[in-house]
Amino acid sequence: VFFSSRVHKHRSGIVIYQKNNNYMTLLYTLIILTIHNSLSWWIIALIALVIVLSVVGIVGAVVPAVPGTSLNMAALIITYLLCPGEISTHLLLALLAAGVIVIILDYVAPIWMTQAGGGGKRTVWGSTIGLVAGLFFMPIGLIVGPLIGAFVGEITDSHRPGKAIKVSLWSFAAFLLTTGIKLMAGIVISYYSISAIFYHFT
Q: Are 141 and 115 in contact (CB under 8 A)?
């Protein structure tokens, strides 16, 4: 058996072959349990939904049109209900509170930092548009796009190249800060979601 380095019995009574730290075991176990009718199809659907929400949520930390942190939080709540006892209520509330703070920062930090650099709404919009355009020129566009967009937005407003450069750098710093925070939050929340499912069903 190519998965096996040790053997244990699942709570259903089906023997599961498991290799240490091999996350393919999760997929293998779900297939076996489904074949033996030990897992309902709706549970499989919910597990798949958690995985999709987690992955898309992490992607949403970079893609502006996708509500990344919100999707990660939704996956966490589903996991909490699907896998009783794997995630404590205190941990759930702590992660959800952190997620709410990240969402607020995602809206407030770019505006605050752009204004701190002397920019306005055009700079913020320019940075966002530049980010969207940069997605078509990955990976360099992801970095250059927001910077150029913020510069264009500010120079059309103030008509001062020196100020536009300063403001665009502040706006770009805000983008890096919020993106980094969202990525960390998404990865941490997704880790708890996927780990809970793995340990509950294997």
A: no
Whether 144 shows a pLDDT value over 90: the answer reads no
Give the count of beta carbons closer than 10 Å to the beta carbon of residue 132.
15
State the average pLDDT for the chain: 78
Angle, helices 161-201 vs 121-134, to 10°: value is 60
Contact 114, 170 (CB under 8 A): yes
| pLDDT-derived band at 1, boundaries 50, 70, 90 | very low
pLDDT above 80 (res 162): no
Q: Is-contact 45 162, C-beta < 8 A? A: no
- Phi first, then psi, for residue 165 (nearest 5°) are -65, -45
Radius of gyration over alpha carbons of the chain, in Å? 22
Q: What is the pLDDT of residue 4?
A: 40
* Cα 201 to Cα 195: distance, rounded to the nearest angstrom: 10
User: Which residue's structure tokens are 């008509």?
Assistant: 159
Alpha carbons 107 and 137: distance in angstroms, whole number = 25
Quick check: 55 pLDDT over 50?
Answer: yes
Single-letter residue type at 96: L
| CA-CA-CA-CA torsion sign (33, 36, 38, 39) | positive
Q: Is 52 helix (H, G, I), strand (E, B) or coil?
A: helix
- As a whole number of angstroms, the distance between CA 26 and CA 194 comes to 10
Instruction: Specify the amino acid at residue 171.
Output: S
